[in-house]
Write a structure and sequence with these properties.
- The complex is a heterodimer of chains A (about 400) and B (about 200).
- Chain A is α/β, with parallel strands linked by helices.
- Chain A has two domains: about 170 residues, P-loop containing nucleotide triphosphate hydrolases (Rossmann fold), CATH 3.40.50.300; about 170 residues, Glutathione S-transferase Yfyf (Class Pi), Chain A, domain 2 (Up-down Bundle).
- Chain A is built from ten helices and 15 strands.
- In chain A, helix 4 packs across helix 5, helix 4 packs across helix 6 and helix 6 crosses helix 9.
- The longest helix of chain A has about 45 residues.
- With about 200 residues, chain B is α/β, with parallel strands linked by helices.
- Chain B starts with a helix and ends in a 7-residue tail after the last helix.
- The longest helix of chain B has 17 residues.
- The chains are: A alpha/beta (about 400), B alpha/beta (about 200).
- The interface between A and B is medium-sized, with 29 and 22 residues.
Amino acid sequence: MHVAHLSLTDFRSYEAVELGLEPGVTAFVGPNGQGKTNLVEALGYAATLSSHRVANDAPLVRHGAGRAIVRVAVVRDDRRALVELELNPGRANRARLNRSPVPRPRDVLGLLRTVLFAPEDLALVKGDPSERRRFLDDLLVARAPRFAGVRADYDRVLKQRGALLRTASAARRGRGGGRRAEREAGFAAAGAGDLLSTLEVWDAQLARHGAELLGARLELVEALRPLTARAYATLAPASDVVELSYRGTLPADDSPADSPPASSTDGPDLWKTLVTDREVLAERLRARLLEMRDAELERGVTLVGPHRDDLFLGLGELPARGYASHGESWSFALALRLAAYDLLRADGGDPVLILDDVFAELDTARRRRLAEIVAPAEQVLITAAVPEDVPAELAGGRFDVAEGSVTRVG
Amino acid sequence: MYEGVVQNLIDELGMLPGVGPKSAQRIAFHLLAADPADVNRLAHALLEVKEKVRFCRVCGNVAAEEECRICRDARRDEHVICVVEESKDVVAIEKTREFRGRYHVLGGAISPIEGVGPDDLRIRELMTRLADGQVTELILATDPNLEGEATATYLARLVKPMGLKVTRLASGLPVGGDLEYADEVTLGRAFEGRRLLDV
């Protein structure tokens, strides 16, 4: 697929911009702070309904404007689809497909698929587990938009169960103050049995939705493992072997109940034998919740489930996080994105590749290898501060970006 | 901000479900311009509804008397109880004319975020109704969302020892719709709940 047209209104620094794009390579060149990344960020937003730079939508709306509009014309197999998104910070966003409103913005997910490489990707290797969970979940949604719903349901269960645990925890400590706290304490004190039976209901919900997410992540990691290893070996041939494995709050087999909860970094390799059957996973999650109940009631938070899991990245014998050099971390992050690209491509429909300010960070050899890998893609969009940052293998169209205006120069 | 009384009205209207600040303002100015008799009728209706409408002591549905119309109707099957979240769900099901049993209105669904636990719902009243063993089937018709599912699961577990038949409304495809337009979750549920076609 490729993007044929991008139109922005009041998005970031752009009051209004219209860009016609072609398949092949296009570079956006200009000094820092001129708005190059804003252009590719908008495309990433149209594909995932979230920004790769910020967690909420408010900064995406131009200062002083009430809402931003992103319009993207996507061409896939010679069919053209127009995706329009209206960003209303503080209120519900709206979406239109081919000029007709859709019930929920997430109904347009999957029409545009992108793989975005950005300096922020370094956090995949060096950052918190939440970065890696987000990588996995975003990829699940990109492959099957239905997972946006699974994820939303799971988050909602977590919130509900968390509220219940906090109430129980507060009641345990006999903390008072405030009408709401009193009321909650009253509801908790109404009977420990009552509270426990309510908790069991939320356990069941957590297990059901958690198993769905967990099973899908396990299968995804299994699929990413060889692709990531291959991409890393291509980028950095003389280097260590990379390893991916899923580290969870759930023991892999029916090991004794007294085994300590696995922490995300030094836990045992939990998934030697891959079990992804949702019923089995749900049953294990429920059993684990029962084991952890005391600790959960003590702390008032849900300690079991895919929201606490991690994707372990190993380099040779060592974990990449903390041990990999800057260059190795970069190559690993790129390899993960390339693996995601391979996977999406295998599903059908070449996704749009976006390389945001990536080449400046790489040495000449890695630059060339990355360029060779991405060059055959149907559409590649690059941002760079100077034209020399764009490798020769990726010669193509060029726009100059300066002071919020975008001009075609080649 | 407007003068005191006008702003008060806007604020009060703005508390109503589905009414935002803009709509509240529009309604307030509509009322200001309206015929005093019309506004009186509205005010009267508002006061009357709080004075006269009560909740059925059996099922919790809105009622004009001690017991609601459905609970007083001797022709309704007393062996089947359909559990719903709100009175408006009773109206929705009544429109189908499919169900001839009785209802039980919970007054909401379990939602810890909003501080709603089982004790805040009319569950104890339901258990009292079930105690004499007259009821043979309990239909759980709470909303098909997380909170509704949780409430249904809670009730199913609670009444399990009583040995009565517990059923849940089916989730699935809308009648008269096209398969291709169904979202994946709905379609998935419909597959889960498929039934044998007896010919």
